[in-house]
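[recover] target loaded
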């Protein structure tokens, strides 16, 4: 059974960052991050992951990000699923993160092209 102890303000932090300034999402990355993007995949340190994600968001021109679903477990890991709309295509996002002192710390970030 999944449950979430996130408040709306905690959850909205990631969504707001993606919506308003996607290139700043790296501020929420852990020291290493598992990235799975349409053009790049692997485990990167925070600095590398930030560069990879900034490059991706620069290419796609984000229009909106819509939060769809969230969940979490007793292990303090949480996930968020959303839809990212760009000028050319739509993407499904999956973000796995931990809360450290009430701040989301992303450990996995997937972006899949919607067909």
């Amino acid at each position: 059974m999944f449950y979430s102890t996130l408040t709306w303000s905690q959850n909205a932090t990631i969504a707001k960052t993606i919506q308003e300034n996607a290139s700043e999402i790296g501020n929420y990355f852990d020291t290493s991050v598992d990235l799975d993007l349409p053009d790049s995949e692997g485990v990167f340190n925070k600095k590398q992951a930030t560069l990879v994600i900034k490059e991706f968001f620069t290419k796609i021109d984000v229009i909106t990000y819509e939060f769809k679903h969230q969940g979490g477990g007793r292990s303090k890991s949480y996930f968020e699923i959303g839809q990212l709309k760009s000028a050319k295509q739509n993407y499904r996002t999956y973000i796995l993160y931990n809360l450290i002192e009430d701040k989301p710390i992303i450990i996995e970030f997937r972006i899949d092209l919607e067909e």
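[recover] notes: The chain is about 25% helix and 50% strand.
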